[in-house]
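Q: How would the structure tokens look for this protein?
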Amino acid sequence: MEAVLQARGLTFGYGHDAPPILESWSATFGGGAMTALTGSSGRGKSTLLYLLGLMLQPTAGEVVLDGTAVSGLKDATKARLRAERFGFVFQDAALDSSRSVIDNVTETALYRGASRRDAIARGRDLLDRFGVDVPAARRPGQVSGGQAQRIALCRALVSSPRVLLADEPTGNLDPATSDVVVRALRDHAATGATVIVVTHSPDVAAACDEEIGL
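A: Here is the predicted structure in token form.
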């Protein structure tokens, strides 16, 4: 299995006097696989996801993407890599309440240089696929929690990211919506992408190809 994303000796703590949340942590994530990160609360699962997604800077160690160390790059370069290679699904959806549903979905694709017409077409296809039956001009505050999480999933998938990171993507969802999300993550891994999921759910972990406990 091709190594797409690697953590090499990652160490991170939130303050000089506090013990590190992660210490010398290493793993390799391949393409075409879905990996669950599991463990009790406070073990650093979400922190690890943000380190892997280049949203936090490790105290020591490095993140390697396609054979190149990337965690030490300049912030602007990491921002570009996140837009070009990564997709994110956050536990609380993290939609922009000031923008419409379709604008939330297409933001990343437009940042990557897609035409607005193509981005909207792809976004509408994803919304239809996941049964988000709301007007595309509606604001996130006008949709249910389950719909918001599916909108966030559409946003993550709209640019077909090489790496998809999901933090408790089913934590606040009913079983039917959870199944939709898990199937979508598995389908994306089947395209050759790397999918990493932080989860407390045994069912979600069982749907993954590998489980790593923290």
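Residues 3-95+141-213 form a domain with the Rossmann fold fold (CATH 3.40.50.300).

Helices lie at 45-52, 75-85, 101-111, 116-129, 145-157, 175-190, 202-207.

Upvote if useful.
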